[in-house]
User: Fold this.
Amino acid sequence: MMVWALVGEGAILGTALALWFGHGVWLRWHRARTGPVLARARATLAEALENGQLSSLNLQLLQTLPFQLQIKLFSDVAPSLGGTQRRWLTTLAEELGLIAKAERLCLSRFWWRRLEGARLLTLLGGRAEATKPLLQDPHLMVRVPAIEWAADHPTPDLAIALLALLDDPSGLNRLAVQDGLLRMGSIAVDPLAEYLGSHSGHQVVPALEVAVGLAAQPFLGPALELCEDESPKVRALVATLLGVLGGIQGVSKLPTFLQDPDPRVREAAARATGKLGFWPSAPRLATLLRDPVWEVRRESGLALRALGSPGSLVLRRALSDLDPFASDIARQVLDLPDPAGLATKR
Amino acid sequence: MWLDVFARILVVLDWSILIYFLLVNSFYGLLLLAAAWELRQHVLQVRGESLWRVLGSPAAPSISVLVPAYNEAATIGESVKALLALHYPSLEVVVVNDGSKDSTMAVLLEQFELASIHLVYRQQIQTKPLRGRYRSRSHPNLVVVDKENGGKADALNAALNLASGQLVCAIDADTLIESDGLQRMVRPFLMGDEVVAAGGTIRLVNGCRVVAGRVVRYRPPRRALVGFQVVEYLRAFLFGRLGWNRLGGNLIISGAFGLFRREALLTVGGYARDTVGEDIELILRLRRRGYEQDLARRVEFIPDPVAWTEAPESLRALGRQRDRWQRGLADAMWRHRQLLLNPRYGALGLVVYPYFFFVELLSPLVEALGLLGLVMGLILGAINLPFATLFFLVAYGYGLVLTGCTLVLEEMSYQRYEGLRDRLIVLFWVLLENFGYRQINVFWRLRGLVKYLRGKTDWGAMERKGFSASARSPHS
Assistant:
């Protein structure tokens, strides 16, 4: 038994160390061989980008590079380029056959190959025919680069396609969609407004978060319709959205939210009111200094401070409020010392 | 006759311990396979990923980095600058000067143009009184809190009260985080709402070249003590914790670098102040709460090397550290003893907790008994040389094989070792680790257990050299 144990352990250890050292040797040789080649290729590409053209000799140099080195070369350069240079790089990638290779990878039955292909197409600027179907790929990781690609090529159709992915089970994909829509900017506004107008409940939460980021007037109508939504999270986001949009219609809804039964909505409404500087809401905010939830009291206090003189007056009056929590939050917001030296907690 | 009886007892003891090691090392083998699979999946997912895109999006969750600092004047300036330079869009850095006796606060005031501020916040967790709150004029996302000394856990809780991020990253003041470390660490939280905490691989910075708070050149250490620790860390992170990912049971997030959901931490009451194992105790509490209240409870580990920390370079400091870790582990196990073999807690109660109890906690005792029994058995003639050799092969040889396989995992993924010389140095430490270093570790851990049973709760002192001192000349 001892001999077998010794032989077995020796064999596994020997194999592991051989792999470790062997790979190290190969890596060193590989880097020594490809380093100068890659450096030359980078210099060639940089020169071509400056001149806007590539000589046939230099094109040949790039064509002879192994696929992985070509990818490394383009990966290093592409993120820093935009506009005409980026389009030129895409054309070059097509000439070198990289885009075709990436598209073939996207058809693989192995998710990691499809992922590699999708990332390449996003990097190099793939065609819609190859990339758009990846938005529906069964593997969640493959959908992310497809979403990034869509954000780089904003059209109303792609914005609608992204909106359909807002309920993706993967949090990473939802974040990618939200990021993508934000990057699309004005192109995403109308499709998003339509989406908000036709959905409700938890479905609209990620869409509302994007709407807050884009802060465009077409969102006002759908936001007003969502004021009565059953979900407190939705109402809280609507309050936030109304705060960034402003306007008479939106502002007139905020006092209602200040009396919402859910504290998250009251908190968001208080914050929005402070942001808008809507001083007629000072009395309503004053009542919220007595709110049972600390976060609501805090936001109300800060909102009052943001209102300037009217708000400060209310806060100073609150210092002598019979409710100790109202007076405490007023004292904190006004940066006055705690007379008892004790923290008040609820 | 008594000698015969004693000899038989020794034989039974040693066979039992041999079987114990066989079972434990076989389980390690399973962990290794799980780690290899997990690593492969991870590498396939992140290869070619552009971190700056989605993970650098303003839509990503905000992160507050919590930095407890006690007598860190030598390194605090460099550390904070490096944190402020991290690549993450919504980042806040909260440094807590925990009543330092040196010039830590003065360094911060001078280097970051701090101005006294008033923050309206709720003290959800009781801490020692705060003496001042400051914001940097040059870096508005830097908040500094000056407070009375209360220990690391107290300082972290103070930072937690003030932090505004959706996620909080607790680090040691001398931890160096890779520039894209937070982008990598936030990924598990985006994949699903069930993740409550995440940890990353910690590497040892001793001997590396550090410039402006970034490790620019990695070199395996030339000193034995640090070399052995490098090997230990590789094993612990690359196969231990990664393997537990796949088996659903991470229980340790290194105190040097961990990312948590802020609300979850506040709900469980933050870090426990009356233990030296606050990191493992917190994870146990978070996971327990997850089971008891059907909330997020998954603890993920990211294999990417994301942070660097300084290892003790003296036997004394290392001994104190291992002693403290063992005491912390014992304390956490005792506090949450209801988990043991309790089906209510699923894999946590039936697999993870028993493993940490019977293996991580009790293995130094078992190993010490085994070695003692072996030596006495050989002396008394109760045990023969082939058995002793078998014992070593199972107990130590197997461990060596696992370490060798861990090196292959490292090669499959991050390839930090350049050149034959670096690899030979690491191999040297791998081979020597089991001759002396492992045994002294057993002693320190046993000492920690005894101290715990005797009620000792202090931290001991860590000697800090600072990164400038640990950086080597480029010509060496």
Notes: Chain B touches chain A through 44 residues (CB under 8 Å).
